Description:
The complex is a heterodimer. Chain A is 77% helix and 0% strand. Chain A is mainly alpha-helical. Chain B contains eleven helices and no strands. Chain B has helices spanning 2-16, 19-43, 50-80, 84-89, 94-112, 114-123, 128-155, 159-175, 188-194, 198-208, 216-241. Chain B is globular and about 60 Å long. The interface between A and B is large, with 40 and 40 residues.
Amino acid sequence: MKAQRHELSPLSVIWLLVERDLRTLVKSPWILINRTVFFVIQLFVFAVLVNKLVASTIPGFNYFDFYSVGAVVSTITSIAFIIGADLFEEEEMGLLDYLLSLPFGHSLFVFGRALGGAVRGLIYTAPMMLLVAFIDGYWSPAGILGSYVVLFVLATGISGLSITLAMVIRSENRFDVVIAMAELATVRVSAAIYPLYYIPQALQPIAAYSPVTSASDLIRWAILGNASGVGNLVILVLFVAIFFGLGSAFLFKRLEGGRFE
Amino acid sequence: MNRVLTVIERDFRIFFADRFLLVIMFVNFTIDLGVSGLSLSAMIKGYGDYFLYIAPGANLITATVASFQSGRDIWRERIIQDTHTYLLTLPVPKPMVAASRLFSGMLRTTMTTLPGTAVIALLYHLSFPLSLVGVLIMLVYSGAVCGLSVIAASMSSSLELFTTVRSTVQVYLSFFSTQFYPTSILPPVVTDVSNFNPMTWAVESFRALQTGSVDVGLFLPLVGLSACLLGAGFVFYRRAMEF
């Protein structure tokens, strides 16, 4: 009797991987609760109070509105970084070896996981984006959809970066601290939480080409009507392509073998 | 005394086994101070030098991260490495283990943040004795966070829960204190909450050093809060040692 072989299409594989990552996130309610509370506190405590301080220095500048968009962008960045922690845990538990033995290519695996990270980040931040649009008095469905696309693209790139870090670092303690630093650096050295103009001059060129800056500027253009350009879109797409292509290719060499400290 | 030193030495060896972590923590401090501090101070005028105002907060945040490593070590021994039970069979009384580990966490944090403390002392043009008071403030503050981290480690059965508690504590310490904003603009509720926040008293004590003297009225509440949290950490850790 001839054995039947069921081969999944690449799309089915990607869907399965994305679904699995979504289930993992749902099973981690503490992370969701924590990030939500953090977002609300950032917005209604930090931004409100700093807005009071800024108002006397820069008349006419509404820091609360500015920060509200940055808070969503920094939250999705933070959520997208979690995918690396998941992968690290799987590797530590020996589950990754099993996952890599499943009948699909490693490129598809990385692509599916990065997409999984991005989709769950988007699902999670979607209500926050709506809240911000409501607070900022913006109701155009096209603009909100556009903002979701920008957030999704950013989250895909950050997921790729996070997966790369998870594969490169072999010590749990080190991974934890490095991922925190990467998150801090990507958000702080960008125009997510302060305008580019006020960032120290030496860092402005770096911040200007940060994908987090590009995503923030594009969403502010859509929601607050701030100036933005096609350059931001190009930077964002390039970030995803570079991290996705180069990063993934690099990590394949490290995926198999090696051990944890 | 020797046994106490042995416990502390072990914790130091664990902590300093990976010096890369210390570098990363200093980089975090540099980003906090050199990027966020300078950017926010460029945006905020009329409240004195805002950069100097928030500078101690950056170092205290680094201290918070370093202090939570103590809890993380204890959590790993309990849940991941399963060495907790073995360690308790060693000839060191349990209360001594608990107290020594809390104290070693404070010392480790103070050492980790020494470069940051030196930077702030230079920015504030502090004399050597006042710089030492700055180190003392860091030591006392780290006691409060070590207590909190050990409570989290003693109660958490999963890494997810431990890291959630850690980030919640960090949010509480940063945003519900006077790290970023003066008391005069805080809503009454936040003012009340900030009075029970060790960050408030630590950051205010540090700022007060700029005047060239130590404000005991700010330092004593910090000592009181730290003592309470260390005591709570000790009790929870002791309870986690019983089976």
